[in-house]
Design a protein that fits this description.
The chain is of the alpha/beta class. The chain is 42% helix and 29% strand.
Length: 202
């Protein structure tokens, strides 16, 4: 009986883990991409919450400022907050492009391009992970809505997907900082979406 219970618990845990670290289809399909060569991409963070406690970005940054200035100094914090802004503005996108454009060869994803369709990556939940050097580390996770819209008519949604707790990988030079780990989660999100597009548009 105990063995059976343990087996059922194991199945429940592995099923949950699989369901989380993947992209789930909500509406539409990739047919609209078949005659396209480019897709515009934009990031949104309007309703993103952070960490297990679902902090707002302002709360999260306030906590990080206290922590970094106490453990390091003001100069380290100033660099950290500068990098945080830079990653939100451009680096998360660049990492996403690196992930998706290596997979989806027929359609190139860019920003500020006059493509017929735009992909909005709407961040919902961000877990920044942690870095412990030799002790080990925990990758970041990103939950986002992936919404394809008509560029000239953004209220017209052609497809919607939900990327649930996509886990980053240790694959970049900034991994020891929160923004580097989050960037890795954007890259893996790109890889997973690119793989789905490649499968659907063969």
């Amino acid at each position: 009986m105990m063995k059976k219970l343990l087996f059922l618990l194991f199945v429940a845990i592995t099923t949950t883990a699989f369901a989380q670290n993947q992209i789930n289809f909500e509406s539409g399909n990739f047919d609209f991409l078949k005659d396209q060569t480019e897709v515009n991409v934009q990031l949104k963070f309007d309703h993103a919450v952070y960490q297990e406690k679902n902090f707002t970005e302002a709360q999260y940054l306030e906590n990080r400022e206290k922590d970094i200035t106490a453990k390091k100094n003001e100069a380290v914090w100033k660099n950290w907050i500068f990098q945080w802004g830079k990653f939100k503005t451009s680096e998360y996108l660049n990492y996403f492009f690196k992930g998706i454009n290596n997979k989806s060869k027929k359609v190139t994803f860019k920003n500020d391009t006059k493509a017929k369709y735009t992909l909005i990556i709407d961040a919902k939940w961000v877990y920044a992970g942690w870095y412990g050097g030799m002790i080990g580390s925990q990758e970041a996770k990103l939950t986002s809505d992936l919404i394809f819209v008509e560029t000239d008519n953004p209220s017209k949604v052609v497809m919607k997907l939900h990327a649930d707790k996509i886990q980053g990988k240790k694959m970049n030079k900034d991994f020891s900082w929160e923004y580097g780990r989050i960037a890795a989660a954007y890259e893996v999100t790109g890889k997973k979406l690119g793989a789905e597009i490649k499968k659907a548009t063969k």
